Amino acid sequence: MISRKQWVVLTMATALCVALGGCAGLKKDKNASSDTAMTAPAKEQRYEPVKPTSIYHDFQDVLFPVELKLDRKHSSVYVTDGFKTGMLTLSGSVDARSTVTWFENNMVKDNWHLVGSLKAQRTLLLFVKQNRYCVISVTDGMMKTHVEVWVAPTLEDKGAGRLQ
Questions:
Q1: SS (H, E, C) the chain
Q2: How confident is the model at residue 17 (pLDDT cuts 50, 70, 90)?
Q3: Which of 25, 113, 156, 158 is the most buried (most CB within 10 A)?
């Protein structure tokens, strides 16, 4: 337990650090004149390339937030001539609810239609597109959010799942 004397000393030390740190940027160079400071050319601005916020993996019409990292060891994709189906497993340090909302908002950009959802500790989203289904499972874990995405053809069309 901290005594009153220790508390006062700690508070004063913290206030002193804040005061000194806050004034550090106000120090002037004694050799620089105010005229040169005003007429000095502005620093050249560098523009960093914009980092993408989303990425496609094996399925070219299922977009993922870049914070979700693909786990190839626990993923499986079957590819044949014009046909692609399978499951991708991803995880990341993201909020599960915002990840669900992200998929609900971004799947429509690739012409997927939300058919239904089941929201609980594990959320399931069912999307349909032309002749394919996409099921997205989002599970809130202790340290990470886990996402599984299944893409499969419908049974209605013999050529289901063909890529165009």
A1: CCCHHHHHHHHHHHHHHHHHHHHHHHCCCCCCCHHHHHHCCCCCCCCCCCCCCEEECCCCCCEEECCCEECHHHCEEEEECCEEEEEEEEEECCCHHHHHHHHHHHHHHHCCEEEEEECCCEEEEEEEECCEEEEEEEEECCCCEEEEEEEEECCCCCCCCECC
A2: very low
A3: 113
